[in-house]
Amino acid sequence: MPHSRVRPVRIPLFLLTAVTLTACSVVTDDEPTKVDHRAAVPDGAPAKVRVTPPAAGRPVTVTASGGTLARVKVVDAKGAELVGRTGAGGASWTSDRKAAPGASYTVEVVSRGTGGKETTSRSTHALPEADEVNKLTLAPGKNSVVGVAQPLSIVFDRPVKNKADVERQLKVTTSNRTEGSWGWIEDYTGKDRADWRPKEYWKPGTKVTLDATLNGTDSGGSWFVRDYRTGFTVDSAARIVKVDLDGKKLSVVRDGRTVSTIPVSGGTPGGDKRSWRGTAVLMAKEGTINMNSETVGLGDAYDKMVDYSMRLTWSGMYAHAAPWNARWFGVANKSSGCIGMSKEQASALFSALRPGDPFEIKGEDTKGTVAEGNGYGAWNVSWEQWREKSAVR
User: Fold this and answer.
1) Mean pLDDT, to the nearest integer, of 348-373?
2) 3-state secondary structure the chain
3) Tens digit of pLDDT for each residue in 231-262?
4) Which residue in 110, 175, 281, 316 could disulfide with 376, CB within 3.0 to 4.6 Å?
Protein backbone atom coordinates (compact mmCIF):
# COMPACT_ATOMS: atom_id res chain seq x y z
CA MET A 1 0.00 0.00 0.00
CA PRO A 2 1.52 3.25 -0.93
CA HIS A 3 2.79 5.35 1.99
CA SER A 4 1.25 8.77 2.47
CA ARG A 5 3.86 11.50 2.99
CA VAL A 6 3.48 13.67 6.02
CA ARG A 7 4.27 17.15 5.06
CA PRO A 8 6.06 19.23 7.74
CA VAL A 9 4.14 22.20 9.09
CA ARG A 10 6.07 25.42 8.77
CA ILE A 11 5.40 27.89 11.54
CA PRO A 12 6.24 31.45 10.71
CA LEU A 13 9.23 32.83 12.64
CA PHE A 14 7.24 35.71 14.12
CA LEU A 15 4.91 33.21 15.81
CA LEU A 16 7.85 31.34 17.32
CA THR A 17 9.15 34.57 18.71
CA ALA A 18 5.78 35.42 20.21
CA VAL A 19 5.51 32.03 21.89
CA THR A 20 8.99 32.34 23.35
CA LEU A 21 8.27 35.72 24.88
CA THR A 22 5.19 34.47 26.68
CA ALA A 23 7.24 31.69 28.28
CA CYS A 24 9.69 34.00 30.19
CA SER A 25 10.47 37.74 30.46
CA VAL A 26 13.60 39.02 28.89
CA VAL A 27 15.35 41.76 30.89
CA THR A 28 17.57 44.23 29.15
CA ASP A 29 19.86 46.91 30.47
CA ASP A 30 17.16 49.41 29.66
CA GLU A 31 14.49 47.51 31.64
CA PRO A 32 15.57 46.74 35.21
CA THR A 33 14.16 43.78 37.07
CA LYS A 34 10.99 44.53 39.02
CA VAL A 35 10.45 42.33 42.04
CA ASP A 36 7.15 42.48 43.89
CA HIS A 37 8.14 41.81 47.51
CA ARG A 38 4.49 41.78 48.55
CA ALA A 39 4.05 38.47 46.75
CA ALA A 40 6.35 36.86 49.33
CA VAL A 41 4.41 38.30 52.29
CA PRO A 42 0.99 36.87 53.01
CA ASP A 43 -1.76 39.45 53.01
CA GLY A 44 -2.39 40.65 56.58
CA ALA A 45 1.03 39.62 57.92
CA PRO A 46 2.55 42.10 60.43
CA ALA A 47 5.59 44.16 59.51
CA LYS A 48 8.97 43.07 60.84
CA VAL A 49 10.36 45.88 63.01
CA ARG A 50 14.04 46.28 63.87
CA VAL A 51 15.41 48.76 66.40
CA THR A 52 19.12 49.30 65.94
CA PRO A 53 20.68 49.17 69.43
CA PRO A 54 21.34 52.84 70.37
CA ALA A 55 24.97 53.91 70.65
CA ALA A 56 26.26 57.07 72.35
CA GLY A 57 26.72 59.92 69.90
CA ARG A 58 24.52 58.33 67.22
CA PRO A 59 20.82 58.74 66.43
CA VAL A 60 18.30 56.01 67.27
CA THR A 61 17.06 54.23 64.13
CA VAL A 62 14.04 52.00 63.50
CA THR A 63 13.24 50.11 60.28
CA ALA A 64 10.30 48.04 59.05
CA SER A 65 10.18 45.34 56.36
CA GLY A 66 6.98 43.96 54.94
CA GLY A 67 5.08 47.05 56.03
CA THR A 68 5.47 50.63 57.25
CA LEU A 69 6.00 52.55 60.47
CA ALA A 70 2.84 54.29 61.65
CA ARG A 71 4.28 55.87 64.82
CA VAL A 72 7.58 55.79 66.69
CA LYS A 73 8.08 57.22 70.18
CA VAL A 74 11.40 57.18 72.03
CA VAL A 75 11.61 58.42 75.63
CA ASP A 76 14.39 58.33 78.19
CA ALA A 77 14.09 57.32 81.84
CA LYS A 78 13.09 60.88 82.80
CA GLY A 79 10.27 60.96 80.28
CA ALA A 80 12.02 63.28 77.81
CA GLU A 81 11.17 62.41 74.23
CA LEU A 82 13.74 61.88 71.50
CA VAL A 83 11.92 63.36 68.52
CA GLY A 84 12.61 61.99 65.06
CA ARG A 85 11.45 61.77 61.45
CA THR A 86 10.07 59.02 59.24
CA GLY A 87 11.86 58.46 55.94
CA ALA A 88 10.29 58.42 52.49
CA GLY A 89 8.01 55.40 52.10
CA GLY A 90 7.53 55.03 55.83
CA ALA A 91 9.96 52.14 56.22
CA SER A 92 12.53 53.93 58.41
CA TRP A 93 12.68 56.39 61.31
CA THR A 94 15.69 58.33 62.66
CA SER A 95 15.89 60.48 65.77
CA ASP A 96 16.90 64.13 65.38
CA ARG A 97 19.09 63.97 68.48
CA LYS A 98 21.89 61.60 69.35
CA ALA A 99 21.71 59.00 72.09
CA ALA A 100 23.52 59.96 75.28
CA PRO A 101 25.82 57.75 77.33
CA GLY A 102 24.29 56.46 80.54
CA ALA A 103 20.75 56.97 79.24
CA SER A 104 18.00 54.35 79.01
CA TYR A 105 15.55 54.59 76.12
CA THR A 106 12.16 52.95 75.69
CA VAL A 107 11.22 52.60 72.03
CA GLU A 108 7.52 52.14 71.22
CA VAL A 109 6.72 51.35 67.60
CA VAL A 110 3.32 51.10 65.92
CA SER A 111 3.80 49.37 62.58
CA ARG A 112 1.28 48.64 59.83
CA GLY A 113 1.36 45.31 57.94
CA THR A 114 0.44 44.65 54.33
CA GLY A 115 -3.22 44.24 55.17
CA GLY A 116 -3.32 47.51 57.10
CA LYS A 117 -3.43 45.91 60.54
CA GLU A 118 -1.43 47.81 63.19
CA THR A 119 0.89 46.12 65.67
CA THR A 120 2.59 47.71 68.70
CA SER A 121 5.99 46.68 70.00
CA ARG A 122 8.16 48.01 72.84
CA SER A 123 11.80 47.60 73.75
CA THR A 124 14.16 49.19 76.26
CA HIS A 125 17.83 49.91 75.66
CA ALA A 126 20.36 51.02 78.30
CA LEU A 127 23.64 52.66 77.30
CA PRO A 128 26.83 52.39 79.38
CA GLU A 129 27.95 55.40 81.40
CA ALA A 130 30.55 57.75 79.93
CA ASP A 131 34.10 57.32 81.19
CA GLU A 132 34.48 61.11 81.41
CA VAL A 133 31.76 63.76 81.54
CA ASN A 134 32.26 67.34 80.33
CA LYS A 135 30.40 70.15 82.07
CA LEU A 136 30.26 73.87 81.46
CA THR A 137 29.89 77.18 83.27
CA LEU A 138 27.71 79.87 81.70
CA ALA A 139 27.94 83.64 82.02
CA PRO A 140 26.08 85.86 82.54
CA GLY A 141 23.70 84.28 85.03
CA LYS A 142 20.23 83.20 83.97
CA ASN A 143 17.64 86.00 83.76
CA SER A 144 20.24 88.64 84.58
CA VAL A 145 20.25 92.20 83.23
CA VAL A 146 23.61 93.27 81.80
CA GLY A 147 25.42 96.10 80.08
CA VAL A 148 25.87 96.52 76.34
CA ALA A 149 29.30 94.85 76.16
CA GLN A 150 28.52 91.59 77.98
CA PRO A 151 29.34 88.52 75.85
CA LEU A 152 27.72 85.15 76.26
CA SER A 153 30.57 83.08 77.69
CA ILE A 154 30.99 79.31 78.17
CA VAL A 155 33.91 77.79 80.06
CA PHE A 156 34.27 74.02 79.60
CA ASP A 157 35.32 71.77 82.45
CA ARG A 158 37.36 69.47 80.18
CA PRO A 159 39.23 70.07 76.91
CA VAL A 160 37.10 70.39 73.77
CA LYS A 161 38.80 68.76 70.80
CA ASN A 162 35.67 68.51 68.64
CA LYS A 163 35.04 72.26 68.66
CA ALA A 164 32.99 72.33 65.47
CA ASP A 165 30.69 69.53 66.66
CA VAL A 166 30.14 71.34 69.95
CA GLU A 167 29.64 74.78 68.39
CA ARG A 168 26.93 73.43 66.07
CA GLN A 169 24.88 72.58 69.16
CA LEU A 170 25.07 76.13 70.56
CA LYS A 171 22.14 78.15 69.27
CA VAL A 172 21.87 81.84 70.15
CA THR A 173 18.56 83.63 69.57
CA THR A 174 18.11 87.39 69.99
CA SER A 175 14.97 89.51 70.02
CA ASN A 176 16.24 91.73 67.20
CA ARG A 177 18.35 89.39 65.04
CA THR A 178 21.64 90.74 66.32
CA GLU A 179 24.61 89.74 64.21
CA GLY A 180 27.23 87.92 66.23
CA SER A 181 29.69 85.04 66.25
CA TRP A 182 31.23 82.42 68.48
CA GLY A 183 34.94 82.59 69.10
CA TRP A 184 37.11 79.95 70.78
CA ILE A 185 39.71 81.27 73.19
CA GLU A 186 41.72 80.15 76.18
CA ASP A 187 40.26 81.22 79.47
CA TYR A 188 42.51 82.83 82.09
CA THR A 189 42.31 79.50 83.96
CA GLY A 190 43.75 77.68 80.94
CA LYS A 191 40.45 75.97 80.08
CA ASP A 192 38.73 75.97 76.70
CA ARG A 193 36.18 78.73 76.38
CA ALA A 194 33.69 79.87 73.74
CA ASP A 195 32.29 83.42 73.75
CA TRP A 196 29.49 84.78 71.56
CA ARG A 197 29.76 88.53 71.04
CA PRO A 198 27.78 90.79 68.75
CA LYS A 199 29.49 92.63 65.92
CA GLU A 200 28.97 95.86 67.88
CA TYR A 201 27.76 96.61 71.38
CA TRP A 202 24.27 95.25 72.08
CA LYS A 203 21.29 97.47 71.42
CA PRO A 204 19.63 98.36 74.75
CA GLY A 205 16.73 96.09 75.63
CA THR A 206 17.90 93.12 73.54
CA LYS A 207 16.78 89.73 74.86
CA VAL A 208 19.23 86.87 74.37
CA THR A 209 18.66 83.11 74.69
CA LEU A 210 21.12 80.22 74.46
CA ASP A 211 20.02 76.65 73.76
CA ALA A 212 22.99 74.33 74.19
CA THR A 213 21.62 70.98 73.00
CA LEU A 214 24.76 69.10 74.00
CA ASN A 215 23.33 65.91 75.49
CA GLY A 216 24.97 62.99 73.65
CA THR A 217 27.74 65.11 72.08
CA ASP A 218 31.33 63.89 72.23
CA SER A 219 33.66 66.81 73.01
CA GLY A 220 36.66 64.64 72.15
CA GLY A 221 37.54 62.37 75.06
CA SER A 222 34.59 63.34 77.24
CA TRP A 223 30.82 63.48 76.80
CA PHE A 224 28.03 65.92 77.55
CA VAL A 225 25.15 64.20 79.32
CA ARG A 226 22.67 67.08 79.56
CA ASP A 227 21.41 70.15 77.73
CA TYR A 228 21.74 73.72 78.94
CA ARG A 229 19.50 76.73 78.49
CA THR A 230 20.00 80.28 79.70
CA GLY A 231 19.01 83.81 78.82
CA PHE A 232 19.60 87.43 79.75
CA THR A 233 18.42 90.91 78.88
CA VAL A 234 20.52 93.94 77.93
CA ASP A 235 19.77 97.00 80.06
CA SER A 236 17.53 99.70 78.61
CA ALA A 237 20.35 102.26 78.97
CA ALA A 238 23.68 102.14 77.16
CA ARG A 239 26.53 103.06 79.51
CA ILE A 240 30.17 103.36 78.50
CA VAL A 241 32.94 104.25 80.96
CA LYS A 242 35.82 106.08 79.30
CA VAL A 243 39.11 106.11 81.21
CA ASP A 244 41.91 108.46 80.15
CA LEU A 245 45.02 107.38 82.05
CA ASP A 246 47.09 110.19 80.56
CA GLY A 247 44.48 112.75 81.63
CA LYS A 248 43.86 110.92 84.96
CA LYS A 249 40.09 111.10 84.55
CA LEU A 250 37.08 108.84 84.13
CA SER A 251 33.85 109.76 82.32
CA VAL A 252 30.50 107.99 82.27
CA VAL A 253 28.64 108.23 78.95
CA ARG A 254 24.96 107.27 79.08
CA ASP A 255 23.03 106.90 75.83
CA GLY A 256 25.65 108.97 74.04
CA ARG A 257 25.78 111.81 76.59
CA THR A 258 28.51 112.37 79.17
CA VAL A 259 26.81 112.47 82.56
CA SER A 260 29.83 112.67 84.88
CA THR A 261 33.60 113.08 84.89
CA ILE A 262 35.78 112.38 87.93
CA PRO A 263 39.53 112.48 88.71
CA VAL A 264 41.26 109.11 89.10
CA SER A 265 44.69 107.60 89.59
CA GLY A 266 45.71 104.63 87.43
CA GLY A 267 48.53 102.12 87.56
CA THR A 268 52.03 103.44 88.25
CA PRO A 269 54.02 103.78 84.98
CA GLY A 270 57.28 102.01 84.27
CA GLY A 271 56.80 98.59 85.84
CA ASP A 272 54.53 95.77 86.93
CA LYS A 273 52.06 98.16 88.53
CA ARG A 274 50.85 99.63 85.26
CA SER A 275 47.19 99.31 84.19
CA TRP A 276 45.86 97.51 81.12
CA ARG A 277 44.52 99.44 78.13
CA GLY A 278 41.76 98.58 75.67
CA THR A 279 38.18 97.60 76.42
CA ALA A 280 37.62 95.79 79.70
CA VAL A 281 34.10 94.71 80.61
CA LEU A 282 32.81 95.09 84.16
CA MET A 283 32.75 91.45 85.28
CA ALA A 284 31.27 91.80 88.76
CA LYS A 285 30.55 94.34 91.45
CA GLU A 286 32.30 92.65 94.37
CA GLY A 287 31.85 95.39 96.97
CA THR A 288 34.19 95.33 99.96
CA ILE A 289 36.96 92.75 99.49
CA ASN A 290 40.43 92.01 100.73
CA MET A 291 43.14 92.94 98.24
CA ASN A 292 46.50 91.29 98.78
CA SER A 293 49.44 92.16 96.53
CA GLU A 294 50.85 88.65 96.80
CA THR A 295 47.90 87.28 94.80
CA VAL A 296 48.92 89.34 91.76
CA GLY A 297 52.67 88.86 92.03
CA LEU A 298 53.52 92.18 93.68
CA GLY A 299 55.06 90.88 96.89
CA ASP A 300 53.96 92.49 100.13
CA ALA A 301 53.14 95.91 98.67
CA TYR A 302 49.64 95.97 100.19
CA ASP A 303 47.07 93.98 102.14
CA LYS A 304 43.88 95.89 102.87
CA MET A 305 40.11 95.90 102.72
CA VAL A 306 38.88 97.87 99.72
CA ASP A 307 35.38 99.32 99.24
CA TYR A 308 33.22 99.49 96.09
CA SER A 309 35.42 97.05 94.19
CA MET A 310 34.43 96.49 90.53
CA ARG A 311 36.36 93.69 88.83
CA LEU A 312 37.59 94.38 85.27
CA THR A 313 39.99 91.48 84.63
CA TRP A 314 40.85 88.07 86.05
CA SER A 315 44.42 89.30 86.51
CA GLY A 316 43.30 91.70 89.23
CA MET A 317 42.52 95.08 87.67
CA TYR A 318 39.64 96.79 89.46
CA ALA A 319 37.99 100.17 89.66
CA HIS A 320 37.53 100.97 93.37
CA ALA A 321 37.67 103.45 96.21
CA ALA A 322 41.24 104.38 97.13
CA PRO A 323 41.10 107.15 99.77
CA TRP A 324 44.75 106.52 100.70
CA ASN A 325 45.70 107.80 97.23
CA ALA A 326 43.59 110.98 97.40
CA ARG A 327 46.43 113.39 96.70
CA TRP A 328 47.09 111.73 93.33
CA PHE A 329 43.57 111.79 91.90
CA GLY A 330 43.69 113.75 88.65
CA VAL A 331 47.40 114.44 89.22
CA ALA A 332 49.43 111.24 88.75
CA ASN A 333 49.03 107.50 88.25
CA LYS A 334 50.21 105.98 91.52
CA SER A 335 48.10 102.83 92.03
CA SER A 336 49.16 99.18 91.82
CA GLY A 337 47.40 98.61 88.50
CA CYS A 338 43.83 99.52 89.41
CA ILE A 339 41.76 102.65 88.75
CA GLY A 340 41.34 104.43 92.08
CA MET A 341 38.98 107.26 93.06
CA SER A 342 37.46 108.83 96.14
CA LYS A 343 35.09 106.80 98.27
CA GLU A 344 32.13 109.05 97.46
CA GLN A 345 32.72 108.88 93.73
CA ALA A 346 33.37 105.13 93.84
CA SER A 347 30.06 104.69 95.67
CA ALA A 348 28.20 106.66 93.00
CA LEU A 349 29.89 104.74 90.17
CA PHE A 350 29.22 101.41 91.88
CA SER A 351 25.51 102.25 92.06
CA ALA A 352 25.29 103.52 88.48
CA LEU A 353 26.93 100.59 86.66
CA ARG A 354 25.95 97.03 85.82
CA PRO A 355 28.12 94.01 84.98
CA GLY A 356 28.57 94.08 81.24
CA ASP A 357 29.25 97.81 81.05
CA PRO A 358 32.46 98.50 79.07
CA PHE A 359 35.47 100.41 80.38
CA GLU A 360 37.29 101.87 77.37
CA ILE A 361 40.77 102.57 78.70
CA LYS A 362 43.48 104.51 76.91
CA GLY A 363 46.95 105.59 77.96
CA GLU A 364 50.54 105.66 76.76
CA ASP A 365 52.30 103.76 79.52
CA THR A 366 50.35 100.54 80.10
CA LYS A 367 51.32 96.88 80.22
CA GLY A 368 49.38 95.98 77.08
CA THR A 369 45.87 95.32 75.83
CA VAL A 370 43.37 93.24 77.78
CA ALA A 371 43.52 89.70 76.33
CA GLU A 372 40.34 87.93 75.21
CA GLY A 373 40.46 85.43 78.07
CA ASN A 374 41.52 87.88 80.78
CA GLY A 375 37.96 88.79 81.66
CA TYR A 376 35.95 89.70 78.56
CA GLY A 377 38.49 91.14 76.17
CA ALA A 378 36.86 90.04 72.93
CA TRP A 379 36.23 93.68 72.01
CA ASN A 380 39.96 94.23 71.57
CA VAL A 381 40.09 92.34 68.27
CA SER A 382 38.39 93.37 65.04
CA TRP A 383 35.13 91.77 63.96
CA GLU A 384 36.91 89.94 61.14
CA GLN A 385 39.53 88.59 63.54
CA TRP A 386 36.85 87.49 65.98
CA ARG A 387 34.87 85.59 63.34
CA GLU A 388 38.04 83.70 62.41
CA LYS A 389 38.01 82.23 65.92
CA SER A 390 34.78 80.34 65.18
CA ALA A 391 35.15 76.60 64.52
CA VAL A 392 32.35 76.62 61.91
CA ARG A 393 33.13 79.73 59.91
Assistant:
1) 97
2) CCCCCCCCCCCCHHHHHHHHHHHCCCCCCCCCCCCCHHHHCCCCCCCEEEECCCCECCEEEEEEECEEEEEEEEEECCCCECCEEECHHHCEEEEEEEECCCCEEEEEEEEEECCCCEEEEEEEEECCCCCCECCEEEECCCCEEECCCCCEEEEECCCCCCHHHHHCCEEEEECCCCCEEEEEEECCCCCEEEEEEECCCCCCCCEEEEEECCCCCECCCCECCCCEEEEEEECCCCEEEEEECCCCEEEEEECCEEEEEEECECECCCCCCCCCEEEEECCEEEEEEEEEHHHHCCCCCCEEEEEEEEECCCCCCEEEECHHHHHHCCCCCCECCCEEECHHHHHHHHHHCCCCCEEEEECCCCCCECCCCCCCCHHHCCHHHHHCCCCCC
3) 999 999 999 999 999 999 999 999 999 999 99
4) 281
